[in-house]
Write a structure and sequence with these properties.
Diaminopimelate Epimerase, Chain A, domain 1, single chain, 18 strands, 16-stranded mixed β-sheet, alpha+beta, 5 helices, two-stranded antiparallel ribbon, 2 domains
């Protein structure tokens, strides 16, 4: 499945638990030797109060706390399955509530933006609105957490930014003890942003839902944007709304590319060497 080009292998582990180690998850995500995806998503049985638990693994096998586009995709599957227009998905970062809209898009409440330095988290105390951190020619990002760490640089011309070079440097900078997603945003108007995101553990993706949420939150905190805006990413547009009560809503498309059966041999060493 994909949401605005951010693509996922979605596995249903509700009937039977799947033997998915970090190495095996990375092998499945490999675009040449596996199926290929930005993130591997596993739907697990829902605990009390949720329709399902969603586990997220990056292409390097590491686990992520949040993925907005994947949440919309999983929500779409669950709502079609149940015939209900709403679903609650539990993640390691908390519960996310989704609803199907009449135009086919899915809206997800991504929870509140976490703005404290320890919540991002940062390595030491700092002003998250003006982080004293430079990345090549870029300076003065704003940081927040949307269930995963984000730093957003605001730039005058997005096409002039070498995101593929700067992104990994930012991801692994000592400022971010859990690594970080690095966003490069250009404000076109108070209700319209352009964005490219280097995702931790995944690299450049066509869209990043939590990155779009973080970019809008940080832009509004800076006085650069309204509380609601369209965020245009390489794969498409997402509508982001940071409500007065702190909740961040994300609305966008979902699509199923194909369905199939994946063989998981018992001997992992033989299967993925």
């Amino acid at each position: 499945m994909h949401g605005a080009g951010n693509d996922f292998v979605v596995l249903d582990a509700r009937p039977t638990a799947l033997p998915l180690s970090p190495a095996r998850a990375a092998a499945i995500a490999d675009r040449r030797r596996g199926v290929g995806c930005d993130q591997l998503i596993v739907i697990e049985p829902g605990p009390d109060g949720a329709d399902a638990f969603m586990r997220i693994r990056n292409p390097d096998g590491s686990e992520s706390g949040a993925c907005g586009n994947a949440t919309r995709c999983v929500a779409d599957l669950l709502m079609r399955e149940s015939g209900r227009p709403r679903a609650t998905i539990r993640t390691i970062a908390g519960d996310l509530r989704a609803e199907a809209l009449p135009d086919g898009r899915v809206r997800v409440g991504m929870g509140p933006a976490r703005l404290g330095w320890a919540e991002v988290p940062l390595a030491r105390e700092a002003d998250t609105l003006h982080l004293p951190f430079a990345l090549g020619p870029l300076r003065d990002p704003a940081a927040c957490s949307m269930g995963n760490p984000h730093a957003t640089f605001f730039v005058p011309e997005l096409d002039a930014v070498d995101a593929a070079t700067l992104g990994p440097l930012g991801e692994h900078d000592p400022w971010f003890p859990e690594r970080a997603n690095i966003g490069f945003a250009q404000v076109l108007a108070p209700d319209h942003l352009r964005l490219v995101v280097w995702e931790r553990g995944a690299g450049l993706t066509l869209a990043c839902g939590t990155g779009a949420c973080a970019a809008l939150v940080n832009a509004h905190r800076r006085g650069l944007a309204a509380r609601a805006a369209t965020v245009s990413l390489p794969g498409g547009d997402l509508a982001i709304h940071w409500r007065e009560d702190g909740e961040v809503l994300m609305t966008g498309p979902v699509a199923t590319a194909f369905t199939g059966t994946l063989d998981l041999p018992e001997n992992e060493q033989i299967a993925w060497r």
